[in-house]
Amino acid sequence: RNYYGGNWASFSFSGLLSWIKENQQKTDTNDECEDWRKLILENEEVISLSKKDKTIQHVEDFCFGDQDSAEDVEEAGALPKLPVFGASGAEGVAQESEKECPPVESALPEAESREPEKATGAEPASATEGNDAEVTSENESSHSTALGESTRELGKTEAAPSETSAQEPKKITYSQIVREGRRFNIDLVSKLLYSRGLLIDLLIKSNVSRYAEFKNATRILAFREGKVEQVPCSRADVFNSKQLTMVEKRMLMKFLTFCLDYEQHPDEYRDYENSTFSQFLSTRKLTPSLQHFILHSIAMVSETDCSTLEGLQATKKFLQCLGRYGNTPFLFPLYGQGEIPQCFCRLCAVFGGIYCLRHSVQCLVVDKESGRCKAIVDHFGQRISANYFIVEDSYLSESVCTNVCYRQISRAVLITDQSVLNTDSEQQVSILTVPPVDPGKPAVCVIELCSSTMTCMKDTYLVHLTCPSTGTAREDLEPVVQKLFNLNTEEETENEELGKPRVLWAVYFNMRDSSGIDKNSYDGLPSNVYVCSGPDSALGNDCAVKQAETIFQEMFPTEEFCPPPPNPEDIIYDEDEIAPEESGFSNLPETKPESSSEESSSRDSTAVKKEGNDE
């Protein structure tokens, strides 16, 4: 691929348009050169790899404005003469022209050498301060508590209430979106980080958290009886809520307290272990509105498929994550979810790892006698030997995956002109679960991002919709989009009642969910070839972290997974070690003393520019 992160990547608007065009065309890449076959010896056989990515299907994009007026518009500050990175096709302005481009096969530069506000389309610093969260370990709980308090205070003041935002949002044209395209960082996969989830623990332990900055999800929403309303989560929210009666507040607090230590009270749920969580809730003297809030907005589980124990576990996880970094359990990385894989690439680069882009692999070379994989052959006809090979599922050919049954994820990304629930503050990060529209359909997770997350331009919102697929993404998600948003063009909207946010642009696509597939399901893979999946449909990242650790431990059972890295000044090199300049990798970061603690603190709390997408 031309970009980092595979299906975990983030794109600018023009980069996403090029990605859409690529996946709509789906042209086969015929390899005319077969010279590489001469590298295969008599006692070897090959496992050919797929040359076509089949993980994305049914891509449909829609513009609800005047698209013709944007034909000659280019992204502000774009450099058309640079090669198009992360994109192909005439319509894409160079996605990565916004960034300074190091050599293709270079190690990633250190994050701190970059200026985040320069050429990123970032908003002024004041706009990003409101709910930013620095990820810290448990022994810094006093800082975390202070952060949570400051988050709530700043969250009230970070954006002055707009006098017109509630009634009449600013008119945003398609040409403006194209011109401001570099302000968008649009994720292919939509996720949030649980504040006590495995990924946060790993970011802290490995010190990768210093390469990124996070923003609190500011509110949990519910869709009930045709209306969007805010869900009280914390104790303070519950008792300050005007939606709930005093009796309902007591009911809710009593049930949530029970969920926190439900294992200590097995008598209360033992009779319902074979029932659904929804049925269990109906026995707990909870009003219908409370049952709805708990099921869809706190536990966020299926009404029909989730058991009582699974629902209690999900509720407990939600409650345990409250208050660590803010008033909700979730964090979102500034510049998008695509920052996370790039942050790990940065750490890898510091210790000599090389990430090669636009570098395809023809086949795996297998020794017939031992059955182990010995090497790969790349598209240059170069043979590269190794002891272990980790292959993402999408690279495996159909002949290897004959017994594999994949699930699919339905995805939609919308650019809208206002929030689904307007308040005094425009800078809100919201999560909303919409119950199934029809029987047999899944619930839809909606994540709405504001401009201070560095994922969209000012006066717009970026909305992600995700659910397990039952049909094409448009079939699954458009009914929910129609309930929440106005899909008419600007001219048609003038004659309609204002209120719903207007969709300015939208894309639907299906993404393969290859998680949870046993390695034995793949035919004929050598024992030293490990398969990792693409993104799963869950809201959090636990599946990916568990998978990474499992693969690592299988390869290196005596080693610690992602240990804290040493400080550069503490690294002692052997005298006979080849200097980076002599080995041809002079672009690797040099070992140099850390800056003063004051400078380091200032640097680490700065939003990191999306350098990982540099080529």
Topology at a glance:
Elements: E1 10-11, H1 13-25, E2 44-48, E3 56-63, H2 125-128, E4 132-133, H3 141-157, H4 174-179, E5 186-187, E6 193-194, H5 198-206, E7 214-216, E8 219-224, E9 227-230, H6 235-240, H7 246-260, H8 277-281, H9 288-298, H10 308-321, E10 330-333, H11 339-350, E11 361-367, E12 373-378, E13 383-385, E14 389-392, E15 407-416, E16 430-434, E17 444-449, E18 461-468, H12 473-484, H13 490-493, E19 503-513, E20 529-532, H14 542-555, H15 597-604
Parallel strand pairs: 8-16, 14-20
Antiparallel strand pairs: 1-5, 2-11, 3-19, 4-7, 6-10, 7-10, 8-9, 11-12, 12-13, 15-18, 15-19, 16-17, 17-18
Account of the protein in words:
This is RAE2 geranylgeranyltransferase. The protein has 615 residues and is an alpha+beta fold. The protein has helices at residues 13-25, 125-128, 141-157, 174-179, 198-206, 235-240, 246-260, 277-281, 288-298, 308-321, 339-350, 473-484, 490-493, 542-555, 597-604; strands at 10-11, 44-48, 56-63, 132-133, 186-187, 193-194, 214-216, 219-224, 227-230, 330-333, 361-367, 373-378, 383-385, 389-392, 407-416, 430-434, 444-449, 461-468, 503-513, 529-532. Among the domains are: 1-24 and 37-67 and 172-222 and 328-491 and 498-552, 2-Layer Sandwich (Guanine Nucleotide Dissociation Inhibitor, domain 2), CATH 3.30.519; 234-321, Orthogonal Bundle (Guanine Nucleotide Dissociation Inhibitor, domain 1). The protein contains 15 helices and 20 strands. It has an eight-stranded mixed β-sheet with strand order 3-19-15-18-17-16-8-9, sandwiched between helices. A hairpin with a 2-residue loop joins strand 8 and strand 9 (227-230). It is globular.
